[in-house]
Amino acid sequence: MTSRDTFRNALLGAGFALAAGPVLAQSSVTLYGVADDAITYVSNQKGHSNWYLRQGNLYASKFGLKGVEDLGGGTSAIFDLQAGFDLNTGAASSSGLLFNRQAFVGLQNKDYGTFTMGRQYTPYYQFVGPLASSNWLTGATGAHPGDYDGLDTTIRVNNSFIYTSPLWYGVQASAMYALGGVAGSTGKGQTISGALRYANGPIALAAGYLRMDNAYVNPVSTTNPAFDSSSTASFAVSAVNQGYVTAHSVQHIAAAGDYTIGNLMVGVNYSNVRYLPGSRSLFTDTAVFNSYGAIASYRFTPAFDMAAAFSYTMASKANGISSAARYQQYSLKEAYHLSKRTTLYAVQAYQHATGQTLGSKGAGSIVDAAPVVGDSQNSTPSSTRSQFVGMAGIAVAF
Questions:
Q1: What is the set of domains in the chain, with CATH numbers?
Q2: Is 352:327 a contact under the CB 8 Å cutoff?
Q3: Contact, 241 vs 150, CB < 8 A?
Q4: How far is CA 353 from CA 30, 252, 289, 344, in A?
């Protein structure tokens, strides 16, 4: 072998070593998602019964990309990009937002915890939500009326930082802060959230706090009022809370606990939501909503399970309302798992409303409370005091 050959082989060996170098770090990117659709019957949508196809009931229809790269020393880089879509039309769930559900990047370490940045769900939801009826049944028919308390996936926060601690004897903590990003007043439109959870054997407990501030960058519309779109957070709006969307800030507190005995799970949950007025709000008194809930789930066989839930929601007497709104909701779910990825399901829910609340124009527009089952009927409340929803569908995860 000549010196030229030796030199050439050395260069080739170095090249192969350099090319192989990045492979030594373990990394992966996963495409994942769910396709979920159901034939749905609603007893009353603004005065009429309806049969239609509704997607994203048992699980939200979505696709995403998530990845992890092992950086060594117990530290990994992570990201998650998640987009929702309407299975029946092919349209994106949110116009103008590609990854409307989540979009974040960060670092995680087994000893020091996880830090992420981007558009994210709150610690309030991520810790308390899994123990609530919206998780055990489905948000479509199991969430508290209109998901006004955000224990389903209707609240997402832009420009947010989240730190989540590692587990310590079953205890874990998480905190969020979202920058309003308004020049000269960074705190405008900010969001703050924190939560704790404990899991040990059959017991699971969680409590969370969330405060969403209104940015008030744009003028408040008296004809079509809304929480300012420049705010870091957005939340579900329905006939339950439409009169309070111009709040200066919205404050959530929730707690939940589940106990599992063999194939049986029983749980309770509580939430308190306050709509705090400011000088630009279209109402004057703080509005308070409280929900009390109970859930149970039983797995009859590895393939078949059922769940049931009851919730009672009550509003405070404020803003000229003497007979405050009350909502009673009863929910059922039956699921048959054809495989680990494919599930046939049926859900049913009934809600009855009494009392009064504010209409969409705020103070001075007192209206009868209208039922909205779960968060499936937020834009289609009943014109009567009751509403029933039934669905039969299929969900396939990939």
A1: 32-397 (2.40.160.10)
A2: yes
A3: no
A4: 44, 22, 14, 31
Pair 335, 135: CB distance under 8 Å: no
Distance, in Å, from the CA atom of 152 to the CA atom of 57, rounded to the nearest integer, reads 12
Buried b (16+ CB within 10 A) or exposed e, 136-165: bbbbbbbbbbbbbbbbbbbbbbbbbbbbbe
**For the chain, how long is the longest CA-to-CA vector?**
100
Question: What's the whole-model pTM score?
Answer: 0.91
C-beta separation of 233 from 251 below 8 A: no
Q: What is the pLDDT of residues 85-141, one digit of tens each?
A: 999 999 999 988 999 999 999 999 999 999 999 999 999 999 999 999 999 999 999
The candidate with the shortest Cα–Cα distance to 298, out of 267, 266, 331, is 266
Whole-number Å distance between alpha carbons of 119 and 104: 6
CB 213 within 8 A of CB 227: no
Q: Which two tokens stand for residue 222?
A: 């008296």
Q: Tokens representing 204?
A: 């699971």
Confidence of residue 25 (pLDDT cuts 50, 70, 90): low
Which 3-state string (H, E, C) describes the chain? CCHHHHHHHHHHHHHHHHHHHHHHCCEEEEEEEEEEEEEEEEEEECCEEEEEEEECCCCCCEEEEEEEEEEECCEEEEEEEEEEECCCCCCECCCCCCCCCEEEEEEEECCCEEEEEEEECCHHHHHHHHHCHHHHCCHHHHCCHHHCCCCCCCCEEEEEEEEECCCECCEEEEEEEECCCECCECCCCCEEEEEEEEEECCEEEEEEEEEEECCCCCCCCCCCCCCCCCCCEECCCCCCCHHHCCCCEEEEEEEEEEEEECCEEEEEEEEEEEEECCCCCCCCCCEEEEEEEEEEEEECCCCEEEEEEEEEEEECCCCCCCCECEEEEEEEEEEEECCCCEEEEEEEEEEEEECEEECCCCCCCEEECCCCCCCCCCCCCCCCCEEEEEEEEEEEEC
| Whether the Cβ atoms of residue 280 and residue 246 lie closer than 8 Å to each other | yes
Q: How far apart are CA 106 and CA 176, in angstroms?
A: 14
